[in-house]
From TrEMBL:
<protein>
    <submittedName>
        <fullName>Protein ApaG</fullName>
    </submittedName>
</protein>
<feature type="domain" description="ApaG">
    <location>
        <begin position="3"/>
        <end position="128"/>
    </location>
</feature>
<dbReference type="Pfam" id="PF04379">
    <property type="entry name" value="DUF525"/>
</dbReference>
<dbReference type="InterPro" id="IPR007474">
    <property type="entry name" value="ApaG_domain"/>
</dbReference>
<dbReference type="InterPro" id="IPR036767">
    <property type="entry name" value="ApaG_sf"/>
</dbReference>
<dbReference type="InterPro" id="IPR050718">
    <property type="entry name" value="ApaG-like"/>
</dbReference>
Length: 128
């Protein structure tokens, strides 16, 4: 698990390899990831959007931008957590993801970015 704190918001990520799949006559490697967003600040915040950079060992880069996470824009009060699971397909058994969340602080009404730390995606058979 990797963790990082930005402006009082702690991001923790763990990953799992889910298997291989054939799509469009090509093998893909499926990974899931679980994210926990913990508000360690004194202000309520809302997650409005996300930005992901998904890399694989074949030097492919996929950029994903979107509103909220899994269809939600959670409000996280001080001391509370929001967790969700998602996934991605890679063209190789090794890769990594990183990114950020755009959030708003309800006390100051200011927007801010929260860093999602780089986490590795690695199929167990590729770990030698």
């Amino acid at each position: 698990m990797v963790t990082q704190i930005t402006s009082g918001i702690k991001i923790s990520v763990s990953t799992s390899f889910e298997g291989t799949y054939f799509k469009n006559y090509k093998i893909h490697y499926a990974f899931s990831y679980q994210v926990t967003i913990e508000n360690q600040s004194k202000d309520s915040v809302q997650l409005n959007s996300r930005h992901w950079e998904i890399h694989d060992s074949l030097n492919d880069l996929d950029i994903v931008d979107g509103e909220g996470v899994i269809g939600k824009k959670p409000v996280i009060k001080p001391g509370e957590k929001h967790s969700y699971s998602s996934g991605c397909l890679l063209s190789s058994p090794i890769g990594a993801m990183k990114g950020f969340y755009n959030m708003i602080n309800f006390t100051t009404t200011k927007s801010f970015k929260v860093t999602i730390p780089t986490f590795k995606l690695m199929a167990p058979f590729a770990m030698n």
